[in-house]
Design brief:
Layout lengths: L12 H4 L10 H4 L12 H4 L3 H16 L22
The structure holds zinc ion.
């Protein structure tokens, strides 16, 4: 499956990976549900199930408080792959 079509297919990638708990420190898991401006992706785009979407949003909010991911991204500083910064 090509990378460009990753939001076309409807499946919960956390269910597929049998993820029981999403850690706010685990940015590799959170980034599937973050847009390039660190916003939480809506469920209709990611295909997450409700259970995991709630876990993800909870984890992302915690990660923001712990400064793992920024709250806002400057419009001028939007770059192609923001996850290079937080690795
Ligand atoms: Zn799920």
């Amino acid at each position: 499956m090509a990378e460009k079509r990753k939001f076309k297919k409807r499946f919960c990638r956390y269910c597929q990976g049998k993820v029981e708990f999403i850690d706010y420190k685990d940015l590799n898991q959170l980034k599937f549900s973050l847009s390039e401006r660190y916003k939480i992706m809506p469920r209709r785009l990611t295909g997450n199930c409700k259970k995991h979407q709630e876990m993800v949003s909870e984890a992302i909010k915690r990660a923001r408080q712990a400064a793992f991911i920024p709250y806002i991204v400057d419009r001028k500083r939007v770059i192609a792959n923001p996850f290079e910064l937080i690795k």
